[in-house]
Specification:
Blueprint (H helix, E strand, L loop, with lengths): L1 H94 L4 H20 L6 H25 L8 H138 L5 H60 L4 H55 L4 H49 L1
Length: 474
């Protein structure tokens, strides 16, 4: 029994420790998985933001390069339009055809529009604007020459000379524009190199950040796997403890069966005690009848007195037998108290087993464990009530033994009185009446003892049923 209790307390400690560790590990693992998910999500959002910013900056760089290319294209287009103004003059100088005048006016208008577009370019520096003003001045002279030719303010025979002058002015203008074009090409190259450098730097930064994310995720996953392995080890320990508790439960069932068999023997012994009590009642009833006969026929003579003495001796033997039976009842009461103590220990063990099972199952079989705990508490309460009843029975048995001792003393007095005063029938008659009263008291005490024996027998049968139910539940 002590081995089972120590083993049970050891199993309980293991179950409590592993249960608490399992709950803590499970909560820590769940929290860590949640944190890993949040960190991964944040890193993913940051990565997307960085990629978005890089794409945005790349687009801005491309747009800037595109604007520079467009500006360069417009300047090239403007430079090409300069010859469009001179071409109608050349044709007029060669053919003297006035049909070239509309073309000349159209070329002049196209130049002005192109110049206005070139002047609005925001990438031009003050030096570029200064060179552009010089170009405009030269082209204004060319356009004045063209206008004079178209308006016939210059004679046709001098148109060739004027055309040569205009061509020289256009060539000078083209040289001025060449410096602007070269400068824009340098700007374009610088922008392209800067954009390439920024793109390379962004690529390295993006790759570095991706590498940092991968390393962080790997560290998080390693910690998570480590905690998962610890939880797995704790779960294995819990399973092992559950197996140990199952073995203890099986041993407890065996002990309950042994106690059930012991209670069956106790019940049979108490049935014998009850039968003996009934025999005592019968004997005491006979004693009462004998005492009544002695009281009635006391006056009959000395011969009848001898009869009475013999009857009193038989009554004394019966009282001695009753005293021995009371001693047996006292011994059986001790055995019953011992059995009740064992039953209470079993109920406490069952309650502890149910508590351990409730900790292990984590709420899955709470109704069954609660029922087992309730039944264990009922068994303990009933056992306590039986113990109190047996203690009272024992006290009453001791009181009955004292009463039997008093009755024996009275009978001895009767014998002594009969021996000393054989001739005094009146006194013997008085003593016979006392014997009758004593016999009546003994009958009442014997009846009370029989009632107590029946109650004890019923209580023990109830205990036996509870043990049987407890063994079945366990």
């Amino acid at each position: 029994m002590f081995y089972m209790l120590s083993y049970e307390w050891k199993g309980k400690g293991i179950m409590e420790e592993t249960g608490v560790n399992k709950s803590a590990r499970h909560a820590s693992l769940k929290q860590m998985a949640g944190r890993n998910f949040i960190y991964s999500l944040l890193l993913f959002v940051v990565l997307i933001a960085i990629i978005f910013i890089a794409i945005k900056r790349d687009q801005d760089s491309i747009n800037t390069l595109e604007h520079v290319y467009i500006d360069q294209f417009h300047i090239e287009q403007f430079r090409a339009s300069l010859s469009d103004v001179v071409r109608p003059l050349n044709d007029f100088a060669l053919t003297s055809s006035e049909s070239n005048f509309p073309k000349l006016k159209k070329a002049v208008k196209a130049y002005k529009d192109s110049y206005a577009q070139i002047e609005a370019i925001h990438h031009l520096t003050p030096e570029h604007h200064k060179a552009l003003d010089q170009v405009n001045q030269l082209m204004n002279e060319v356009m004045e020459i063209a206008s004079d030719v178209a308006d016939k303010r210059i004679p046709a025979n001098q148109a060739g000379h004027v055309t040569v002058l205009a061509q020289n002015l256009v060539l000078a203008t083209a040289e001025k524009l060449e410096s602007i074009v070269i400068s824009l090409e340098k700007v374009l190259q610088e922008k392209s190199a800067e954009r390439q450098k920024e793109a390379t730097m962004q690529l390295y930064m993006l790759l570095g950040f991706i590498l940092v994310i991968v390393v962080l995720l790997e560290l998080f996953n390693r910690r998570l796997v480590k905690h998962a392995q610890e939880v797995s080890r704790v779960s294995s320990s819990v399973a092992k403890s559950a197996g140990n508790m199952l073995s203890v439960s099986e041993e407890q069932v065996g002990a309950t069966d042994q106690q059930y068999r012991f209670m069956d023997k106790v019940i049979k012994g108490l049935e014998l005690v009850a039968d003996s009590g009934e025999k005592i009642s019968t004997t005491v009833a006979n004693m009462e009848k004998t005492a009544d006969g002695a009281s009635t026929f006391a006056k009959g003579g000395a011969a009848e007195m001898q009869h009475v003495v013999a009857s009193i001796n038989r009554v004394r033997q019966s009282m001695n037998t009753a005293t021995d039976k009371m001693s047996i009842i006292d011994q059986k009461s001790d055995q019953v108290l011992t059995a009740i103590h064992q039953i209470m220990e079993v109920a406490e063990e069952a309650n502890l087993l149910a508590l351990n099972a409730s900790i292990e199952s984590s709420g899955d079989n709470s109704s069954v464990t609660a029922e087992v705990q309730g039944m264990s508490e009922q068994i303990r309460q009933v056992s306590e009530d039986i113990r109190v009843s047996v203690e009272e029975l024992r006290t009453l048995a001791e009181a009955s033994a004292g009463e039997n001792s008093l009755a024996t003393q009275e009978i001895d007095h009767c014998l002594e009185a009969s021996a000393r005063v054989s001739g005094l029938m009146g006194k013997m008659h008085s003593m016979a009446e006392k014997s009758t009263q004593s016999a009546a008291a003994v009958v009442q005490a014997s009846e009370r003892q029989n009632d107590r024996n029946k109650k004890i027998l019923q209580a023990l049968k109830h205990i036996s049923e509870l043990l049987s139910i407890s063994g079945t539940k366990l």
